[in-house]
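Researcher: Please predict.
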Amino acid sequence: MQHTDALRETPFVLAADERRLHTGLYGRAARGELFRVRHGVYAGAEWWTGLKPHERYHQRVAAAGLVFTDAIFMRESAAVLHELPIFGEPRDIHIFDPDRRSTKRYGDVVVHAAQGARNVAAIGSVFVTDLLATVVDTARHLPPAYALAVADAALRRGMPREQLRAWSSDDANRRNERLLRWVWDFADARAESAGESVSRAVISWLGFAVPVLQQVFTYEGITDRSDFWWPKVRAIGESDGYGKYVALTAQAAVEGVVKEKVREDRLRRYSDGFARWDWSDAHRVAPIERKLLRAGVPLVAARDNAMLATLRR
């Protein structure tokens, strides 16, 4: 879930500026030309409706930064600015107030009381909790498969596992600490996408053998990597991400599909079983289980129904 350069822009129309320019902002909003992002901040309606859910959340946080200029964003609101994985469009904007004694909600903005010290960083002109605090705070309030995706992303950036573990255990907030211990233990920097992270959790909870991640194969001078590899049974698993086949033109889309098919054919030379699944398959559980069994991946542990049930959240 990468954020493009366009998402770093803030193409907003501010009511304060429009009142000075007399360009009929409220009339444009009434005609559906503008969408009210929050009080005093508008965006082009066509542009806004074209955003994906996680992109829309990114822009809601950016709009909040224009209104609450001294705010310190935390949890998912800081995570999206740190370019950590975001799942769908979170309901709330989260702000950290180290001087507040109790948490207070104002519409979609939740101002959190201090539960312990948080270091603050600046991303552009916006203040956020630093990466370490953001990873722990966000993971603490997510379902464990999603928390794992956030932890995997942190490890990919070089954050030490023990630093996450130590900060979490010392934090005054003890919510979901037992589940977080599993997240820190299971996190792996080799997982390259949120889809791979969630799939890896599901594979483990179903009781399948632990796969090798990002196994390298070379054929006729071309190097490919598989998402998942079970060497004992020569099985390969591939998790399709959100945008694997997204393209600007129909021709580019076709070329992308053909390129992926050729890559899959090369990988199949090394395998006796091959499984491909997508985001929906992983969340519905049964499809990924069926595909892995068909590919010959062995079950080596008991099914963890309690953890699989967390996907329904």
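Model: The first helix runs from residue 5 to 8.
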